[in-house]
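Margin note from the TA: students keep mixing up input and output lines. Inputs are the sequences; the output is the structure of the whole complex. Example:
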Amino acid sequence: MNIPRRFGQVSALCALLLMSGGAIALSQEAAAPKSAAEVVKTHAYVSLDPVPRGKEFQAAIVVDIANGYHMNSHKPLDSYLIPTTLTPQLPGGITLADTEYPTGHNEKFPFSPDKPLNVYTKSVTFRLKLSAEASASLGATTIPVVLRYQACNNSACLPPVKVPVSVQLQVVAAGATSKAMHPEIFSASSSR
Amino acid sequence: MNRVARTLLPAVVLLVVATGFLGCKGVVSKGGSGQPATLANEPDVKFTDLQGNNVALASMKGKVVLVNFWATWCEPCRGEIPILIGMQNQYASKGFTTLGVAMDEEGKKVVDPFVQTEQFNVSGHPTTMNYPIVLGSDDIATQFGGLLGMPTSYLISRDGKIAKKYVGALVESQVVKDVESQL
């Protein structure tokens, strides 16, 4: 019997089996719900850089939702469901004209086969229509925004959470040169 | 034993041991239910019901209890309420009860009207929730090992052992079978 060769064969098989065991463990992890904060990734964009005093501009919050999960839209079909909301905490001299929430889409789920829910899935973009007033502080400015949502997958729901998002911009003097940014998000035809 | 069998034997033994270990470790199994390897004692928790009374889980010893963590905003939780009403109708006289633990942050203010007024279709009949409802909290959930999602349910045997944990919406045929096995 070739002992070293047999030892090598057994070692290789053991390694393979341990790897397959790891795969089983990972698949069990994947089956468990994520934590609520892990379900989304947020990105903030500003339509102008810099933002001159006296100008209107927009901020966009793009929310990427984990595969297999959905969150209620801003206008869910039932009053007991928790809507997705954005709450900006505006610094002095920055004013909010409107918050645009995209319309969700109706979808049926295994736990609600007869009644569709109005939800966001995959990626959704919210827009804040803002103005920099003459009193806005010059220089780097942060607009803290709180995103509140409640997400579910096909069998379980996660508790509602509030996720902080920071919108960063530069405020400059009125009449200063400014450049339009992120046309893929802010052009009239782009709405996700 | 031929040479191939001798070569494979240690690997097969290792696979069996490793699988057993993973099976014991996994709390959540595919399909949303899992059975602990050894039955843990129910936590020593006290709830508050919608009338403001204290309800100790230990006071239910002698009954089979399905502790069901839910919330009014949780659509899968709503989806399984008709199953829970039906089981209460069928098995309460045999020593079973569901205990609904509402996890709404707003507490009684939102839970009470929901329990009093929401109607669920049970075998074609509109029915309100017919099993005890208490108010939950993060501390209570932590005593059960923490909740990742809702609904999450625990089947507790007559002698106060956690017999099974269900994460996600209940599958009626499975939970009925499990409850019957405890009665």
